[in-house]
Write a structure and sequence with these properties.
This protein is an all-alpha fold. It contains 4 helices and no strands.
Length: about 110
């Protein structure tokens, strides 16, 4: 991956995941707090961080696992879809750009 494309992928992933964690923190303290919500948000935040770590450290399987898990687990929380879907899209796009660059690099094969 070129330095510019890598910087854009890592930077956008970090910003989007940090914003998502902020949204989870905001919704956590809203009326109706329960232990179930806390556990669910910890799982969602953990999957987002896992996906971001995969992008940052260029581990495609980790990034796809985090994004896919976030999509599957977040599917049941319709209120958060507007926040979950952009995170998943950014994680998949960053991972796809890593895969695209790796497949054209003759040294890696």
């Amino acid at each position: 991956m070129t330095a510019t494309r890598e910087s854009i992928a890592i930077g956008s992933t970090a910003v989007v995941v940090a914003a998502f964690l902020g949204v989870l923190g905001y919704y956590l303290v809203q009326p109706g707090y329960s232990q179930t919500r806390l556990v669910f948000f910890i799982v969602l935040g953990g999957l987002a961080v896992l996906g971001a770590a995969g992008v940052i450290f260029q581990r495609e399987r980790v990034a796809v696992s985090g994004a896919g898990g976030l999509l599957v687990v977040g599917f049941w929380q319709a209120v958060l879809w507007v926040y979950i879907v952009p995170v998943v899209v950014v994680l998949f796009a960053a991972t796809f750009s890593m895969l695209k660059d790796r497949s054209s690099d003759p040294i890696i094969h």
